[in-house]
Specification:
The protein is α+β, with helices and mostly antiparallel strands. It has helices at residues 12-23, 39-43, 68-75, 78-87, 107-120, 174-181, 241-247, 268-281, 297-306, 321-332, 388-406; strands at 2-8, 28-31, 52-53, 61-62, 92-94, 99-102, 125-126, 131-137, 140-145, 151-159, 190-192, 196-198, 210-219, 222-233, 237-239, 257-261, 334-341, 349-351, 372-374, 382-383. Pfam families: HI0933_like, HI0933_like_1st.
């Protein structure tokens, strides 16, 4: 079978690339290895799909050369994504920290809008098409299915096969292997935007507790980055948006320390004064209930134990000034040693990918193979948690599709 162009990958970037290419006059098909398309989009934002972030900028993205993303985002920014989906019927709503959701609160609305557009443009979609290899000769790409029953020949090819994250939703890392067949190299791959396993003691007994915290990541005493938001304690470690935003650092450093500020609205002096007043007002209580109403009860009890109070049956009136200083310090500096991530199976995105040095950031075209393009997570670019990675998918997919149609 011959077609002018083909997209490998039926995810966000692949759909945007195909829709943009066809709208600009290029006949194109979509190939997806799973039985359904856009599975990952459907799961985004806990089923609500924060499909972009109005604040998206270069500082929200990472990779060996994060500047690669600048040109792409300037060509198709978050306002372009909002406009694109508005034209497809998605009324948007901006929520906390610039996250943009469909007003209906349904990820399925975004999926349906994209499906309806491919139907309108008459873009063929081939599911259960698992690409095993690509052969490039005589300026044509030959794409072979894994079962050996299908061969697609095309003049232009866009690889948007995703990364290694959430493999059950479609991405299994095959895009990197296909890129290597075309002469491209990939960086080391690691899970990002993922839960983290930690030492047991700092999280013992805290499973299910959520607090607002500011976390600062340290490597060998050097401050790397910080994030503020919801921190979730789990039976294996820590999770939540504030953890996701810093989890990319595990792709760059080992033996990280995450220092949690458990009362980011107060400085340490304020907390010391607060504890001193509490000692006077709550002298009739035992230490077991000393921090009730100030910090989550279980978390507070663990903090007290880690400050050196062995028996929580101790009377509050016996609390020393030295111990108050220690408790205040722990509230502002609660160190949690990171051991590892929970793996690609739980990761929202992949850190690493096809090296961007081999791709033109103004067109997304390969510098090694003419008429070969890349888009989305398969490239060595990923973003913060909160709509930034879908924005990258739309932006890179748009540019790849537009460039393919324009040549």
């Amino acid at each position: 079978m011959y077609t002018e162009a083909a997209v490998i990958g039926g995810g966000a970037a692949g759909f945007m690339a195909a829709v943009t290419a066809k709208a600009n006059g290029l006949d194109i098909i979509i190939m997806e290895r799973k039985d359904r398309v856009l599975k990952k989009v459907l799961a985004t934002g806990n089923g609500r799909c924060n499909y972009t972030n109005i604040n998206a900028g270069i500082s929200n993205y990472y990779g060996e050369d994060r500047e690669f993303a600048r040109d792409v985002l300037e060509i198709f920014g978050p306002e372009n994504a909002v406009d694109f989906f508005e034209k497809l019927g998605i009324v948007h709503k901006i929520e906390e920290n610039g996250k943009v959701y469909p007003y209906s609160g349904q990820a399925s609305a975004v999926v349906d809008a994209l499906r309806f557009e491919t139907q309108r443009l008459e873009i063929p979609i081939y599911t259960n098409f698992d690409v095993s290899r690509i052969k490039y000769e005589n300026s044509l790409f030959k794409i072979f299915s894994n079962d050996g029953n299908k061969i697609i020949t095309c003049k232009k090819l866009i690889i948007a096969a995703g990364g290694c994250s959430y493999p059950e939703l479609g991405s299994n890392g095959s895009g990197y292997r296909l890129a290597e067949m075309m002469g491209h190299k990939s960086t080391e791959l690691r899970p990002a935007l993922v839960q983290l396993k930690t030492e047991k003691d700092p999280v013992k007994g805290l499973h299910g507790i959520k607090v607002n915290a500011k976390i600062t990541a340290y490597y060998k005493g050097k401050e790397l980055n910080s994030s503020e938001g919801e921190l979730l304690f789990t039976d294996y470690g820590i999770s939540g948006p504030v953890v996701f935003n810093l989890s990319y650092l595990t792709a760059l450093y080992d033996n990280l320390i995450f220092r949690a500020d458990l009362m980011p609205d107060y400085n340490i002096c304020d907390i010391e004064k607060m504890l001193t007043v509490r000692k006077e007002n709550l002298s009739h209580l035992t230490m077991e209930d000393f921090l009730v109403g100030m910090i989550n009860k279980k978390l507070g009890q663990l903090l007290l134990k880690r400050s050196g109070i062995e028996k929580l049956s101790l009377s509050v009136e016996k609390l020393s000034d030295e111990r108050i200083t220690k408790i205040a310090f722990l509230i502002k500096n609660y160190d949690i040693k990171i051991q590892e991530t929970t793996g690609f199976r739980n990761a929202q995105v992949t850190a690493g990918g096809v090296k961007t040095e081999g791709v033109n950031p103004k067109t997304m075209e390969s510098k090694k193979v003419k008429n070969l393009y890349f888009a989305g997570e398969v490239l060595d670019i990923f973003g913060d948690c909160g709509g930034y990675n879908l924005q990258w998918a739309w932006a890179s997919g748009y540019l790849a599709g537009k460039s393919a149609a324009g040549k």
